[in-house]
Design goal:
The protein is α+β, with helices and mostly antiparallel strands and 339 residues long. The protein contains twelve helices and nine strands. The longest helix is centred in the N-terminal third of the chain and has 38 residues.
Length: 339
């Protein structure tokens, strides 16, 4: 019996040395220590032992059961560790590896300036309007009081789709569209693309951007025009900015003016940017012509208004010191990411 018990110890230990998985470990436990296991079987045969032998064999059997149990526990611990190590190795994440970076774009310099300009006018109670880039000749010219022989109407200057349609040459048709559908008080800003048959060079492009403004109400005067646009210039270029208005001509405003700002680059001292004049031309403006109001069904005896239009491309170029308009439209990320 003693030999049988020693054999159980030796064989179970040998098997436990070789075991690879937790499942086969459990099978070994059942094989030796289970209810129908080998050790249990031996103990059952103890009835045939003598009085003196029984406690000795009993003690040995208990000792071997404890040994095997202990060995099983050790092996389980060892197998679990091995398993964990394997998992840690296979799931290893190297946090020092360079990440796959998703390149994030940034706003085009012109979009940034447009956002700023919108904010300034929204702060003064304006809302944003849009109009079509393919426009009716009527809205682009006739309703805006351009006579039949105005030079801007020439096919040399303007892209016509057919007799009635063209690519708008200015954002001013949005004035007419707004006044047709909306009664005063009106305060709108209308940014968008415009088209003229120009050759591409550092300062010209057949497509460029304008921002139109229109205010119509009772009692609007040239003082409102000057006050609004002077405040705009100070917010865009800084409090110390000065403005001046020069007489000009537009068919759809009377009187008309162009507004200059003190050069933001030299603060009016004179530099290359302002061609040593100290001033930069920023926009065209004027009091809405009574004929235009009447064309839109607004009584010029009751209402008056002012309008203005500026070139977004030029304002952005001045702000950022960009000296070639073509850069604005190439969409080269190396250029755009600088702003
Ligand atoms: N539409 C004019 C232009 O393109 C600018 C302008 C707008 C002038 C509104 C006066 C009033 O030159």
């Amino acid at each position: 019996m003693r030999d049988k018990l020693e054999k159980v110890r030796q064989e179970s230990f040998r098997e436990l040395e070789k075991v690879e998985t937790i499942q086969s470990l459990e099978e070994i436990r059942i094989k030796y220590l289970g209810k129908k296991g080998e050790l249990t079987g031996i103990l059952r045969g103890m009835g045939g032992l003598s009085e003196e032998e029984r406690p000795i064999i009993g003690q040995l059997a208990n000792e071997i059961r404890d040994n095997v149990n202990e060995k099983i526990e050790q092996t389980a611990y060892f197998l679990n560790r091995k398993d964990l190590e394997k998992r840690l190795k296979s799931e290893f994440i190297d946090v020092t590896m360079p990440s796959k970076r998703k390149p994030i774009g940034n706003k085009h310099p012109m979009t940034k300036i447009l956002d700023e300009i919108k904010e300034i006018f929204i702060g003064m109670g304006f809302t944003i309007e849009e109009g079509p880039e393919i426009e009716k000749v009527y809205y682009n010219f006739d309703a805006l009081n351009h006579n039949k022989y105005h030079p801007a109407r020439d096919v040399q200057d303007t892209f016509y789709i057919n007799e009635d349609l063209l690519l708008r040459t200015q954002t001013s048709p949005v004035q007419v569209r707004t006044m047709e559908k909306q009664k005063p008080p009106i305060r709108i800003l209308a940014p968008g693309r415009v088209y003229r048959a120009d050759e591409i060079d550092a300062t010209h492009s057949p497509m460029f951007h304008q921002i139109e403004g229109l205010v119509v109400d009772k009692g609007i005067t040239m003082a409102n025009l000057k006050g609004t646009l002077d405040m705009f210039a100070k917010q865009l270029y800084g409090e110390s900015t000065k403005t001046k208005f020069r007489p000009h001509h537009f068919p759809f405003t009377e009187p008309s003016a162009e507004m200059d700002c003190t050069c933001a680059a030299c603060k009016g001292a004179g530099c290359r940017v302002c061609k040593n004049s100290g001033w930069i031309e920023i926009l065209g403006a004027g009091m809405v012509h009574p004929k235009v109001l009447a064309n839109c069904g607004i009584d010029p005896e009751i209402y008056s208004g002012f309008a203005f239009g500026m070139g977004l491309d030029r304002i952005s170029m001045l702000r950022y010191g960009i000296d070639d308009l073509r850069l604005m439209f190439e969409n080269d990320k190396r250029f755009i990411s600088q702003f």
